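Recall the central idea of this unit: under ordinary conditions, the amino acid sequence of a chain determines the structure it adopts. In this exercise we apply that idea directly, starting from the sequence alone.
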Amino acid sequence: MIEGETLQCVPPDRKIMIGVLANSQTLIGMKQALPNLYPDAKVIPNIFFRHEQLFNVVCYHSDLTVAPAYYKELELITKSCGEPLNGIQLHNVWPHPNIIAIYRSVFPRIKIILRIGDKAFRAVDFSGKLSAKAVAKRIAERIIWYEDTIDAVLIDRSDGYGKQICIGLADACLRVFHNRIPHLHASVAGGFSSDDSAIEPFRALVKHFPDISIDTESGIRNAANRLDIGQVKMYIKKVSLAIRMPDYQPAA
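Accordingly, the structure predicted from this sequence is:
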């Protein structure tokens, strides 16, 4: 459990996101090959804790692409989580903006995060030959489709596999986002863990973009895909230090 000294080290204007993975199958109680990653949706409300420094999020991927069915799944998971739920992170590739607009109108309290994964990047750069700046501009143009219906975007080409973030592409995206969609909060993911070397890319980015957030999954899990609470606490402390003192260099 995250408490005490760990919470105290978090900057006062920041929150710790507690993200739980869910999909169409867990929503109807189907057992998953990796149950420690994808718990039964019915238990998610018991995972979330209500605390002013915690931000509870369901990271959702739907097997359905038909608009009414996709919306109904978002509605169901939101209602089943109840008051502890603060946000929903959309893992589908460029979901239809109209669905998100409807969801926003029905659940205005819930913050909406659009995850830009590897498939979303490849959807705007089929050849893989565009420059980082050109890709970033295309990504921003797609995000503009959603106008004011989302609150944040997550740059995550690692797709949960711990692939290290590409600093050049992340930097290009953050610069374009700052100019084109400054009202949206931005987060980055990709190979982050409690190791100093893994935190270094975030430290390099937060120097220039002090408001960005960081996201990790595989970097704080053990071989059984269970959260390693010791690693979680160390990760939070090191990320908090990077935010407060981005120029600080840990001793070798």
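The two ends are 29 Å apart (CA to CA).
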